[in-house]
Structures are given as C-alpha cells and as structure tokens.
Amino acid sequence: MHRGPFRCECGELHDTYDESNDLEPYIHTDGVTCLNESVPGACRHVFRPLARRRGEHLELRSDDDDPELLIHVPFTVAVKVRSLVIVGEPGSSAPAHVRAFVNHDGLDFSDAARLPPVQEWDLAREATVELEYPTLRAKFQNVQSITLHVTANHGGTAEPCATSICYIAFQGEGTANKRGIVDAIYEVQAVPENTGVPGLGMGTADAAGF
May I ask which residue range the UniProt record assigns to the signal sequence (predicted)? Predict the structure, then answer.
C-alpha cells in the first residue's frame, strides 16, 4: 500500500486527487485576498472547478525576487479539509514550502512569522494538478477560512525569483454549521406581521398608538 503525504515509500509520486470532494463550490471567491501578489486580484483566478483547472488562466505571482505569498481563503460554510492541491509553474518559480493557518482573519507577514501554523508542507517541484497533500484531519474539522503562507520557491536563495502558482484546490466536505446558525437566529427573530397582539410585528406599533 502506498503511504505518505505526497511521495510514497516507493519514492514515486502518485496522482490521487478525487474531484468528487472538491471544495471549490464552498470558497467565497470574492473574499479571497493575497499579500505580495504582483497583479491585484490574481489570487482569485487560481481557485477554479477541477474541470477548468487547465488552459489559459491568470496565474498568481509574487513580486520579483520575493517568493513569499500570504493567501487568505474564506469559505461560505464551515468545511472539513482533507487535503491541499497547489500547482506552480515548472521550474524554480514553483512554490517549495507552504504553511497553513485555520480561522485566522487579517493575518499579515509579521503575524504569519510569529504564529505557529496548524500544518506545513514541503512541496514537490514536479507537482501535477492531481497531486494532493493530506492534512492533519483533526485540526481541519470546522474550517471557516484558511490562510496559506508560501515561504519559499524552488529557486532558493541562490536563484531568487518570483513564486508562480497556477492552481489551488482543497479536498474535503462542506457542513451546514454556519448556515444552520444563521437560520436559527432568523427563526428566533422572525415574527408575524399585523397580528394585533402587543409585542408581535406591526401589532406592537398599533398597541403603542403610532
């Protein structure tokens, strides 16, 4: 049996990504942000349905000679994340190391350097779109947002260059936690109108003589 986060004990890489568990429909794309991206808003284009993972798309690039990126990804509902897929351009600009923070909004680079990540991965230079990096599942069970801190690319310090990312995806499952809370609050607050009973709907105004 093959084991390991992305390279098994036989030393080979294996494509195991299951599109049926793609979390892309749960990503709040308009809320995705990135620090140090060279083109503002490019970060939103790397999150796509698996069927549109290939072809010509705007890539996410860091500023020249600075490999770091800090990508914040909010979800529309709480999700359980089982794995990460991150694909860079072939060569030295491909991301080499990424750290993940769960349910931390508004992080900057100083915060990311100071705080311990929930998990981090060394990324394969020869990554393909189907190559997944499993998470520590117990730490990714009620995820409202993920912040990915790309700290380095395969150029290293000897060959500094911008980091380039073509595609990012998460695999797992959505939950109804967030939506359920909103629905419960709405049900408590909702009252019928024109009941004529003091304290309910328009009846409150009627009873007060307004």
Answer: none
142 lies in some domain = yes
Residue 150: inside a domain:
yes
Written as one string, the DSSP assignment of 143-158 is EEEEEEEEEEETTTTT
Does some domain include residue 1?
Answer: no
Nearest to 81 by CA among 5, 153, 150, 173: 173
CATH of the domain at 148: 2.60.120.470
How many structural domains does the chain have? 1
**From CA 72, how far away is CA 75, in angstroms rounded?**
10
DSSP for 16-39, written as a single string:
---GGGB-GGGB-GGG-EEETBSS
Strand partners, 210: none
Residue 111 lies in a domain: yes
Tokens 């007060």 label which residue? Answer: 208
The lowest-confidence range among 2-6, 79-83, 147-151 is 2-6
DSSP label at 123? P
Q: According to the model, what pLDDT value does residue 187 have? A: 43
- Which tens digit of pLDDT belongs to each residue from 105-118? 999 999 999 999 99
What is the extent of the structural domain holding 67? Answer: 19-175
